[in-house]
């Protein structure tokens, strides 16, 4: 089923292609990519969808979401439907927030559809088993638009409230200093046996999945490209799985 709205005007689709491989892309994402004559995105993302883009105009832009936004608007104003592809989910640390804010700042009224994708945290949780089985907080350590004091305050609050905490971009472009400070905060709030799940190079031939504990974490050489899931007080390992329970009671429910 083609998941597109009926509209005679040019439209921009912000499409999440998931963690990488075709089998993790939703039918709606594929439909939008097949439909649009113009595809904009990071070169790596465009390579991942090459099987869907034959004969289309491809505009690879490596590290500039504002330029992607500007180009997409230009093409749409010329009457062409456009897709901006994003890894994972476009609404989670990705293009959707940047693009929609760009429209607001430029006072533009353009038809936009955000097409969700499988986010990296969801993929990592599934690979680990059920690491996000209960309440969680997602925090990026490399957000250049958020003051570091605000990030550490949010992290401390999430830890104190016993959320499972998902850490995006622990090293980012700034090296390990932020991660080392974050790890010190985590160590104050969680005991050394807290389960930790680490995913790097997701959904590639080099994908690595590691399960360890907070006490062992400082001794491990961590990859720079990783997502880290910090368990809460109820999280545990069972065989090859990391589980955060969500208790179900017969005749009551969750």
What would your notes on this structure say?
- The protein is of the alpha/beta class and 254 residues long.
- The chain is 30% helix and 23% strand.
- The chain is built from seven helices and 13 strands.
- It has helices spanning 27-35, 43-48, 65-77, 95-106, 120-128, 148-160, 177-189; strands at residues 11-16, 38-41, 57-60, 82-86, 111-115, 129-130, 136-140, 164-168, 195-200, 208-213, 226-230, 236-238, 241-243.
- The strands form three sheets. A five-stranded parallel β-sheet has the order 3-2-4-1-5, sandwiched between helices.
- Helix 3 crosses helix 4 and helix 6 (148-160) packs parallel to helix 7.
- The longest helix is centred in the first third of the chain and has 13 residues, at 65-77.
- It is globular and about 60 Å long.
- It starts with 10 loop residues before the first strand and ends in an 11-residue tail after the last strand.
- The model is unreliable at 4-8 (pLDDT under 50).
